[in-house]
Amino acid sequence: MNFSLTHFAKRFLLMLTAVIFMSATASAYTVVMRGGKRIEIPEQFTVTRITVTYEAAPGINITLQMTSIDIPATERANNEQPGSLLKRAEPATSEPQTSTRLQSAGTIPHKRREITDRDLERFKRVRLESEAAYERRLVKLGLPPLEESRRRTELQAESLHQGLVQRKSEEAQAESYWRGRANDLISEIGATDAQIDKLVYELYELTPDEI
Fold it and tell me: 159-168: string of b/e by CB count within 10 Å (b at 16+)?
């Protein structure tokens, strides 16, 4: 029993040592973030002027923004000369390789499709065929043709528009009328108040004999 436990412990220690060794081998470069956090990444990684990209697992790429990386601290952590990290940036001529690498990773860029006159003609033909089929369906159901429906819809829309215009005009006229009436009433109230003030003043001016 003790022999089995000892054998199991030895195997566990060997496996743990192998894992630590593999981790140390895979994480061969240290990236220091601006907040002080350190990230261990594989030795093979891609650098551009704005990003650092590495493969965390097969088929899984992680991208770090260059603005979030403390470049001088990263270079010191890896015993590099100043400017070494940015010197790893791929030149502009490496874009075809980058595109090939993306395709191999399963990310295929979308190809832009151009619409030609032939495509437009085909779309027009399909639209006309659809309208013709719709016309036949309307006739079969005993409904007015599509053009007649469009004409009725336009007439209804125009009638509705005219009704709204007329209603707004009537509301504006009514508002103007009542606004004028209110001004007239205010003027009449002011004149009445003035007459009352005059009478009160004349009453106070009368002598007791006159009263």
Answer: eeeeeeeeee
